[in-house]
Amino acid sequence: MALRLNLYHEVHKARALKRRDPLKISIYGISAIAALFASWYFVQLVRMHATNDEYLKVKAEFEKVEPMAKAAKKKEDELAQKAATSVLIGKRIESRFYWAPLLAELTQVVPREVQITRLGGEVSASGGSDNARHCALTIDGLSAGADPRHVAEDLRTAIAERLAPHYKSVTSTFKTLEDGSEMVMLDGKQVGTATFAIVVQMATVEDKPTAAGRRKK
Q1: What is the DSSP letter of 207?
Q2: Which member of 123, 178, 184, 204 lies 3.0 to 4.6 Å from 97 by CB, making a disulfide possible if both were Cys?
């Protein structure tokens, strides 16, 4: 049996250790990279956890104020509707035509020889930039006297003269003027009558409020 002695075992061992050194370095490098990734993952996990906590907090606050926001939106819609209605009513009030002063002026010129049987009127806007409104008034009545036609004519003229200082473009014309078929008692005498229909047209202009006037109000 042959016997072999390895007198270079230390040399062989040193060579083997040298061959294993690159492997150790690689393992160390991989371990360092793995540790770096683990640290980055931990940081991201902590950040995500903090973000999730913030999200839950904001969500809870939103769920708390959401009913109040809906109620406020509903209230806002109701107030907007009321405001629009108020503006519409205000415009209608501002654009109304005052009939009382006109009727008061008419009562001043109707003599006792005249009986008004029907009174009608309508108002329309011109649609122009002058903010004018036109009024058409129809007066039906019965005049009596020695000359009932002349009484009706005096009334027509008096109406135009009475309204001219207060309105623009006043016209007063007869739509009809006919002799009546009946007699009436006036001052203890039987006198003739006449039926008439007078059409009165006029225009009125209301000044638009200036910016200074609106601020003053």
Answers
A1: P
A2: 123
The answer to whether 155 and 109 have CB atoms below 8 angstroms apart is yes
Residue 61 pLDDT greater than 50, yes or no: yes
This prediction has a pTM of 0.53
Per the CB < 8 A criterion, the answer to whether 195 and 180 are in contact is yes
Residue 172: pLDDT over 90: yes
Question: If we measure between CA atoms, which residue out of 165, 147, 45, 153 comes closest to residue 102?
Answer: 165
> 124 by DSSP, 3-state: which?
strand
Side-chain-side CA neighbours of 212 within 13 Å: the count stands at 0
Query: What crossing angle do the helices spanning 99-109 and 148-163 adopt, rounded to 10°?
Result: 140
Q: pLDDT tens, 84-112?
A: 888 888 777 766 777 888 888 888 999 98
99-213, CATH topology level: Alpha-Beta Plaits (3.30.70)
Instruction: Give the distance between the most distant pair of CA atoms in the chain.
Output: 183
**E strand or H helix at 73:** helix 9-94
Rounded to whole angstroms, the Cα distance separating 52 from 214 reads 55
Token pair of 192 as six digits: 């003739």
Per-residue pLDDT, averaged over 148-177, amounts to 92
For residue 209, pLDDT beyond 50: no
